[in-house]
Amino acid sequence: MRFLLDTHVVLAIVQRELGVRFPVIETVLSEASSEVFVSVASLWEMAIKTRLGKLTPRLPLDVIPDYLQASGLSILTIDVPHVITAAEPEPETRDPFDRLLLAQCLVEGLQLVTVDRALADHRLAFRF
User: Fold this and answer.
1) Radius of gyration of the chain (CA)
2) Given its phi and psi angles, is residue 16 left (phi above 0), alpha (psi -120 to 50 degrees) or beta?
3) In Å, what is the CA distance from 61 to each residue of 1, 2, 21?
4) To the nearest whole percent, how much of the chain has pLDDT over 70?
């Protein structure tokens, strides 16, 4: 399976708490057939919230991408099709980062791994 992680899940990985906070997600992602991506949008969201003092990741922002890649995750860049595609059906959330993640899932054939209640029932979200 091919997955895109939402920012909550990425943060749990960065904070080394995925197994504690989301053990089922850790199990699914550790399967050999799983191809797992982190969007640049999630890194951007984490950077904004860190600079605003709303988030304290355990690692410096400039180290996080390398840490994620060393953990076996691939970084998904933001391309034109991602920003002009609307995820159907329209998600309940108005959060632009969430909407971009869903659009990336649609364009790239991924399923969103999320714990966000506003996204969990979307057809592009992976159900646990």
Assistant:
1) 14
2) left
3) 28, 25, 21
4) 100
